[in-house]
Design a protein that fits this description.
By secondary structure, the protein is of the alpha+beta class. It has eleven helices and ten strands.
């Protein structure tokens, strides 16, 4: 593995920096690093379109589906840099770009690829997706989900409820897991993946604001929703296995987001510590502060190397399941350590909202601290990731 950046990657980094300085408003504080949410959705979509026009949004996808046939390394570098600058719209709700698109490229019919991939690649609001996995009684034990899909002629009829559905209120499409065979000998064998138009009759969306007043999550109810049979992704009753591929791509996205976004926050924190005095000397001269900043910098380099190693595995034609879980688990721990250490350094300033005139470090620490507990659950808890690592890396038998 050679992680040296070539001329293409170096030029890309410079171009993204110029783009950010030109397109972002003066004093831009960035999107929330953890949930990648921009409060102004119209502005976010406008930025998505501009990124698409630059050819960056899904650059590693095939040209015939809206990509640039760029390397996986270029895509990873792009993701790190847009996270560093906090460019809104770079993720389009994250589902479509990070896992729906890659899985459709692998498993989708030609009709599905030609219909849905260019929508995502365009950056338009019709390319925004949400993911319908979790239910009130099915989270980590996702195979217990109860949402039903019953085949009737050339349609499936969907009934059920999803919860914690990120960006459902802004999404045109839902990447939905439902039960198609309730009599399967093992519960995970009767599941299927579907593409659902969120404008379909029978869909109700209820907001679930989180505990720091962000409208990120939703409940979604499906009441006799008709879904064309052609919207089945992959094989019927093989959805669980397709899901594992989607989750691998979802988990790998943690690496570039943290590597870029946290690098910026380390730099901002270091600058704050150079400029701020405590007990007669600058914060950066206090040993405990220096130690915390050094640990943060090491964490950033660690997740960056993990992201590059995952990227290298993609170039070998692999779907790195173990590496994805390793990246997710490591990223979760880095988020936790980073948020708590940053809060220790800033003290009461860490509690301030980004809009406060007294906020330090662009007010980013509040969101990082409040957001990390929930993000350690999303896409699989630490216990789930460790179980996957034990199975796929160490060859241990399943624990159930």
């Amino acid at each position: 593995m050679d992680f040296k950046l070539g001329e293409k990657e170096k030029v890309l980094i410079d171009e993204i920096a110029k783009f950010a300085k030109k397109e972002l408003p003066p004093g831009w504080k960035g999107t929330q690093l953890i949930d990648q949410e921009c409060m102004d959705f119209d502005f976010e979509v406008s930025m998505s379109k501009k990124l698409a026009q630059k050819g960056w949004l899904v650059m590693s996808w095939p040209k015939e589906y809206g990509g640039q046939d760029a390397s996986h390394l270029e895509q990873t570098v792009y993701e790190m840099e847009v996270s560093y600058w906090g460019i809104p719209g770079a993720w389009m709700g994250i589902s479509g770009i990070q896992w729906v698109g890659p899985v459709l490229i692998m498993l989708g019919t030609e009709q599905q690829k030609r219909k849905y991939l260019p929508m995502i690649a365009s950056g338009d609001r019709d390319g925004y997706w949400c993911t319908g996995y979790s239910e009130p009684n099915a989270g980590s034990d996702l195979a217990s989900l109860q949402t039903r899909a019953v085949k009737q002629g050339d349609h499936y009829i969907i009934n059920g409820q999803k919860v914690w559905t990120s960006f459902a209120h802004n999404s045109r499409w839902c990447w939905l897991m439902a039960r198609t065979d309730p009599n399967a000998p093992k519960k995970h064998r009767g599941l299927s993946l579907f593409i659902v138009d969120m404008k379909s009759p029978g869909i109700t969306i209820r907001p679930l604001p989180n505990y720091y007043s962000r409208h990120h999550f939703n409940e979604v109810f499906f009441d006799n929703v008709k879904v064309p049979a052609e919207n089945l992704v992959g094989e019927e009753n093989r959805g669980w296995y397709h899901l594992m591929q989607a989750l691998a791509f979802e988990r790998r996205s943690v690496g570039p987001i943290i590597a870029g976004g946290f690098k910026r926050m380390v730099e901002d924190l270091a600058q704050y510590c150079k400029e701020t005095t405590y007990e007669g000397k600058r914060l950066c001269q206090h040993p405990i502060v220096r130690q915390k900043l050094a640990e943060m910098a090491i964490d950033v380099e660690t997740i960056k190397m993990f992201a590059f190693q995952f990227t290298w595995r993609l170039t070998q034609g692999a779907i790195p399941v173990y590496e994805a879980s390793r990246n997710k688990l490591t990223g979760d721990e880095i988020m936790r350590r980073f948020a708590t250490s940053a809060a220790d350094i800033l003290g009461a300033y860490s509690q301030l909202d980004p809009d406060s005139k007294l906020a330090r470090v662009r007010g980013r620490i509040q969101g990082a601290y409040l957001g990390f507990p929930g993000n350690m659950i999303a896409a699989g808890t630490g216990e789930v990731e460790k179980s996957i690592i034990a199975q796929f890396k160490l060859g241990l038998p399943k624990s159930y």
